[in-house]
Design a protein that fits this description.
InterPro entries: ADC_dom_sf (IPR023375), DUF2071 (IPR018644). It comes from Paenibacillus thalictri. The protein is globular. The protein has three helices and 13 strands; from the N terminus they run βαββββαβββαβββββ. It has a single domain, classed as Acetoacetate decarboxylase-like, CATH 2.40.400.10. The relative contact order is 0.23. The protein has about 250 residues and is mainly beta. About 10% of the residues lie in helices and about 45% in strands.
């Protein structure tokens, strides 16, 4: 039976992979927090094989808190106690072989088994963190994260955030489209080989957001100094995602 998401592909920048997808996830209560960062700073932190993707000549760093649910392998139901947990990503944007994608500096998650499996199977810098997520009566999110993994530097993030607009899809060619509509991630192994992981979803159901960020040392844990300017904020209540296995390019 064809997954309903596979019926909506016209918005994709390239065709779906010919292979079958391997995993389904739902991303909930997600906040995109973006700052412009000098290209030289980001270039020094990403593998040399990648081209840093820029907007108007500037690199961008994203910090993305959210909650994952309905994690399951293709054709199987969610596995009890492993199918839902909060996650917090630090990311930038790269291009490889003509395909723009996401490069992660770190991915903090409140699930030890998921952390170890993702590090091994996807060559991603997952780290264990103690993360608490609460919902206020008005639909806002209170998010607190403290990294507890010795493989990464100490990092804290505490924020409250909420949507403040109607849902919209970003316009092709716009800055928010460039920041969010990306359909693969990249990673490298210890030998320096490049891997691509394709993903698929409908267009992001974005909303303008407001946020109060009281603690944030996520970027600093990677040696990145954030500018003293307000970040760009976008919110998405829910997005269902299909994920393919890693492909060495």
């Amino acid at each position: 039976m064809t997954h309903p998401l596979l019926l909506h592909t016209a918005h994709r920048p390239w065709p779906l992979p010919s292979r079958a997808y391997v995993m389904h996830q739902s991303w909930l209560d997600l906040l995109f927090v973006h700052w412009p960062i000098p290209c030289d700073t980001l270039r020094a932190l990403i593998p040399a094989k990648f081209t840093l993707d820029t907007w108007d000549g500037t690199g961008w760093l994203g910090i993305v808190p959210f909650h994952m649910k309905n994690i399951r392998l293709r054709g199987l139901p969610p596995i009890p106690f492993t199918s839902a947990f909060p996650e917090l990503n630090v990311r930038t944007y790269v291009t490889y072989q003509g395909k723009p994608g996401v490069y992660f500096f770190s991915l903090d998650a409140r699930h030890r088994l998921a952390v170890e499996m993702a590090r091994r199977l996807f060559h991603l810098s997952y780290l264990y963190a103690h993360i608490e997520v609460e919902h206020d009566p008005d639909g806002g999110i209170v998010y607190n994260s403290r990294r507890c993994d010795p493989r990464g530097k100490e990092a804290l993030f505490a924020a409250s955030y909420r949507p403040v607009s109607e849902v919209r899809n970003s316009l092709p060619g716009s800055h928010e489209h460039w920041l969010t509509e990306r359909y693969c991630l990249y990673s490298t192994d210890k030998a320096g080989d490049v891997y691509r992981c394709d993903i698929h979803h409908v267009k992001w159901p974005l909303q303008t957001a407001e946020a109060s960020i009281t603690i944030n040392s996520m970027a600093a844990s990677h040696g990145i100094v954030l500018p003293d300017t307000p970040p760009l904020l976008h919110f998405a209540r829910k997005l269902d995602v299909l994920i393919w296995g890693l492909e060495r390019t």
